[in-house]
Amino acid sequence: MNAKKKEELAQVRDSLKVFMRREAELAQEVGEAPATGIRAKVRERDEDVDLWDRMTPAERTELYQNDKEEWKRILEAKREAGMRKLLRY
Protein backbone atom coordinates (compact mmCIF):
# COMPACT_ATOMS: atom_id res chain seq x y z
CA MET A 1 0.00 0.00 0.00
CA ASN A 2 2.89 2.38 0.71
CA ALA A 3 4.16 2.03 -2.87
CA LYS A 4 0.72 2.97 -4.17
CA LYS A 5 0.70 6.13 -2.05
CA LYS A 6 4.18 7.06 -3.28
CA GLU A 7 3.05 6.59 -6.87
CA GLU A 8 0.00 8.76 -6.25
CA LEU A 9 2.18 11.42 -4.64
CA ALA A 10 4.50 11.38 -7.66
CA GLN A 11 1.52 11.83 -9.99
CA VAL A 12 0.21 14.76 -7.95
CA ARG A 13 3.64 16.41 -7.98
CA ASP A 14 3.93 15.94 -11.74
CA SER A 15 0.49 17.47 -12.22
CA LEU A 16 1.39 20.38 -9.98
CA LYS A 17 4.55 21.01 -11.96
CA VAL A 18 2.61 21.06 -15.24
CA PHE A 19 0.03 23.38 -13.69
CA MET A 20 2.67 25.81 -12.40
CA ARG A 21 4.47 25.89 -15.74
CA ARG A 22 1.24 26.55 -17.65
CA GLU A 23 0.23 29.27 -15.18
CA ALA A 24 3.55 31.03 -15.76
CA GLU A 25 3.17 30.76 -19.55
CA LEU A 26 -0.34 32.21 -19.50
CA ALA A 27 0.64 34.99 -17.12
CA GLN A 28 3.47 35.96 -19.45
CA GLU A 29 1.15 35.92 -22.47
CA VAL A 30 -1.28 38.36 -20.83
CA GLY A 31 1.51 40.55 -19.46
CA GLU A 32 1.27 39.61 -15.79
CA ALA A 33 4.01 38.46 -13.51
CA PRO A 34 3.72 34.75 -12.77
CA ALA A 35 2.91 33.81 -9.20
CA THR A 36 6.14 31.91 -8.71
CA GLY A 37 8.78 32.91 -6.26
CA ILE A 38 12.13 31.49 -5.32
CA ARG A 39 10.49 28.74 -3.25
CA ALA A 40 8.39 27.61 -6.20
CA LYS A 41 11.44 27.54 -8.45
CA VAL A 42 13.43 25.52 -5.91
CA ARG A 43 10.52 23.13 -5.48
CA GLU A 44 10.20 22.70 -9.26
CA ARG A 45 13.94 22.10 -9.57
CA ASP A 46 13.85 19.49 -6.83
CA GLU A 47 10.82 17.84 -8.41
CA ASP A 48 12.68 17.65 -11.73
CA VAL A 49 15.56 15.87 -9.99
CA ASP A 50 13.13 13.42 -8.38
CA LEU A 51 11.43 12.88 -11.72
CA TRP A 52 14.76 12.09 -13.39
CA ASP A 53 15.58 9.61 -10.63
CA ARG A 54 12.22 7.85 -11.02
CA MET A 55 12.38 7.59 -14.81
CA THR A 56 13.54 4.40 -16.45
CA PRO A 57 16.15 4.56 -19.21
CA ALA A 58 13.37 3.86 -21.71
CA GLU A 59 11.32 6.78 -20.37
CA ARG A 60 14.35 9.07 -20.57
CA THR A 61 14.97 8.00 -24.17
CA GLU A 62 11.32 8.57 -25.05
CA LEU A 63 11.40 12.03 -23.47
CA TYR A 64 14.58 12.84 -25.39
CA GLN A 65 12.97 11.80 -28.65
CA ASN A 66 9.61 13.50 -28.07
CA ASP A 67 10.47 16.63 -26.07
CA LYS A 68 14.16 17.44 -26.20
CA GLU A 69 13.75 20.82 -24.47
CA GLU A 70 12.03 19.24 -21.48
CA TRP A 71 14.70 16.53 -21.40
CA LYS A 72 17.45 19.18 -21.36
CA ARG A 73 15.72 21.14 -18.58
CA ILE A 74 15.31 18.09 -16.36
CA LEU A 75 18.85 16.88 -17.03
CA GLU A 76 20.24 20.32 -16.20
CA ALA A 77 18.36 20.28 -12.87
CA LYS A 78 19.90 16.87 -12.13
CA ARG A 79 23.40 18.13 -12.97
CA GLU A 80 22.95 21.22 -10.81
CA ALA A 81 21.79 19.06 -7.89
CA GLY A 82 24.93 16.95 -8.25
CA MET A 83 27.10 20.06 -8.26
CA ARG A 84 25.36 21.45 -5.15
CA LYS A 85 25.88 18.15 -3.37
CA LEU A 86 29.53 18.06 -4.38
CA LEU A 87 30.20 21.60 -3.16
CA ARG A 88 28.52 21.02 0.21
CA TYR A 89 31.15 18.49 1.21
Detailed description of the structure:
This protein is mainly alpha-helical and 89 residues long. It has helices at residues 2-29, 38-54, 57-66, 68-88. The protein is globular, with a radius of gyration of 15 Å. The N and C termini lie far apart (36 Å). The mean pLDDT is 82.
Give the topology, please.
Elements (H helix, E strand, L loop, with lengths): L1 H28 L8 H17 L2 H10 L1 H21 L1
Helix pairs in contact: 2-4, 3-4
Number of strands: 0
Using only CA atoms, what is the Rg?
Answer: 15 Å
Spell out the helices and strands N to C: HHHH
Number of domains: 1
Q: Give the % helix.
A: over 70%
Which descriptors would you attach to this protein?
single chain; 89 residues; mainly alpha; 0% strand
Would you kindly provide a brief summary of this structure?
This protein has 89 residues and is mainly alpha-helical.
